[in-house]
Write a structure and sequence with these properties.
The complex is a heterodimer. By secondary structure, chain A is an all-alpha fold. Chain A has one helix spanning 10-35. In chain A, 48% of the residues lie in helices and 0% in strands. The N and C termini of chain A lie far apart (80 Å). Chain B is built from 17 helices and no strands. Classes of the chains: A mainly alpha, B mainly alpha.
Chain lengths: 54, 449
């Protein structure tokens, strides 16, 4: 079996990380955007009443 | 050279000069794909409108409980395949396992797409649930022992990086699924079958990148400058324990309980996050959905943060933090409702969920400390059954207790208080089990022939 004796290229390492970080960053961005309304004052919290039991 | 030969373990040995920092992205590429299961709920409602398109047609369209089984079957198969195929994974190595995982997971998604097109639910159960679930189990354990072998100096950080991807998979899979369904939506289709097919193709390419990037270290390889500890730490062994011996030791079952308790408590909140937020604070469905997304973010981040921290604190120490800090935070949840502080509630639950993720990510390093690396993937696979058990226990506990409370006149906003105190009890059990863990007796150590 042939063995490649060369050191791993820094470009290859950077490329590998970019490949996984791009979709991950997109996912993080989507989550952050959707969670913003949670901290906006317009979401005025009001507790739900108990269901009436008769 | 045939494709099967390329997948051989012998052909995946990292050559001299190979940089180990290529391994985490390889592992992440698989975990980011299979973690899509956490975001599967975005397909639930569209799957109930496959015939009716704009609304569900009674007796013709599937119901939510029927559709819910897809997720449950997939998680059960994840646990079973990880438990039963762990030895095979150790034997054939990470590349073949990742390849098999991609074939199962993406093949399962494609079959599920056909199931939607034919409107045959059993085909989706078989595709996404059974076959896809096997892909999940294989993909989950495939890179773990490889990473630990490449990073003997930072095993917690290494496994945290990979398992972080599983948490992150929901962050990508859920919005991707929504976007694809929106794109393919038409008067004759809800867009699910097309979304499944596109995701299957995309994920397969991505997983192949991982499978063909991953390498195993050459026997005896060590990172530059790494000096193995001659004076072993109390719980860290330099010996190895075979999988068939490991699972018969008390340490294995104590760890099983530790994981089960940590996951039961966390998944109970994660699975009901949106509903809890609506019931406790009266926020809208959309805002509550944002809360669930935020928790997924902390679930992912916690996997890397806490697991990396465990390299400094030791595994036993970090689990004590999960259980003790977790117990305090769970007890605080009713207080946040009492003072109507959404911000405090979000902060408290975010830290709780970060430690839930941390518990998952730290377990492989804990196993490595106790049982060595020889059969780490296989032992990890068997321990994953604790997750399957917790995936059933956690949501059921929260659902049952909160429903019981509201049925007995407790205000809906306060119906989760008792559940939180029950979770504290589970964490105390986990803490006791963690404190009882001692080093594995030498008689269990593998003797080299």
């Amino acid at each position: 079996m042939e063995i490649d004796q060369r050191d791993s290229s820094p470009v290859a390492i950077a490329f590998a990380w970019i490949i996984v970080l791009i979709p991950l960053s997109w996912g993080v961005y989507q989550s952050v955007i959707k969670s913003v309304p949670l901290f906006e004052p317009t979401t005025a919290p009001t507790a739900m009443p108990s269901p009436s039991k008769h | 050279m045939s494709i099967l030969q390329i997948l051989d373990r012998d052909r995946t040995i990292g050559p001299p000069g190979f940089n180990r920092w290529l391994i985490p992205p390889a592992a992440l590429s698989v975990h980011l794909c299979i973690g899509e299961i956490y975001g599967f709920s975005v397909f639930n409602v569209p799957l109930t409108r496959v015939i009716g398109i704009t609304q569900s047609i009674e007796n013709r369209d599937w119901t939510i409980p029927q559709v819910g089984w897809i997720y449950s079957i997939a998680l059960i198969m994840l646990g079973l395949s990880a438990a039963f195929l762990g030895k095979w994974v150790e034997r054939v190595g990470p590349r073949r396992t990742m390849f098999a995982s991609a074939c199962c997971f993406c093949g399962g998604l494609s079959l599920a797409s056909l199931g939607v097109a034919w409107h045959q639910l059993w085909v989706i159960y078989l595709g996404y649930g059974v076959i896809g679930g096997i892909g999940l189990g294989l993909g989950y354990i495939a890179p773990v022992s490889t990473l630990v072998k490449w990073f003997p100096d930072r095993p917690g950080m290494a496994t945290g990086l990979a398992i972080m991807g599983f948490g992150g998979g929901a962050l990508i899979g859920a919005p991707l699924g929504v976007e694809l369904m929106r794109y393919f939506e038409s008067p004759t289709s809800v867009g699910v079958k097309e979304a499944f097919l596109v995701m299957a193709c995309g994920y397969f390419v991505f997983m192949m990148f991982g499978a063909f990037t991953v390498r195993v270290p050459a026997p005896g390889w060590q990172p530059k400058g790494y000096v193995p500890q001659t004076q072993a730490k109390k719980l860290v062994t330099n010996a190895h324990v075979g999988v068939d011996t490991a699972w018969k030791t008390p340490q294995f079952w104590l760890l099983w309980t530790v994981l089960c308790m940590n996951v039961t408590a966390g998944i109970g909140i994660l699975g009901q996050a949106s509903k809890m937020c609506q019931d406790m604070f009266g926020v809208s469905k959309e805002v509550a959905g944002g809360f669930a997304g935020l928790l997924s973010l902390f679930n992912m981040g916690g996997r890397f943060f806490w697991s990396s921290t465990s390299d400094w604190t030791g595994r036993k120490g970090i689990y004590c933090v999960y259980f003790l800090l977790g117990a305090v935070l769970y007890s605080l949840v009713p207080f946040t409702q009492k003072i109507h502080s959404v911000t405090l509630f979000v902060l408290v639950t975010a830290v709780i969920i970060s430690m839930y993720g941390g518990g998952f990510a730290t377990i492989p390093a804990y196993l490595r400390d106790l049982f060595g690396t020889m059969h780490l993937g296989a032992v990890h696979g068997r321990l994953i059954t604790a997750w399957s058990m917790a995936a059933v226990l956690g949501p059921q506990l929260v659902n049952y207790v909160s429903t019981y409370q509201t049925d007995h006149g407790v205000a809906r906003a306060e119906a989760y208080n008792l559940t939180m105190y029950l979770m504290v009890g589970l964490l105390v059990i986990g803490l006791i089990c963690n404190l009882l863990i001692t080093p594995v007796h030498e008689r269990h150590h593998h003797q080299a022939a």
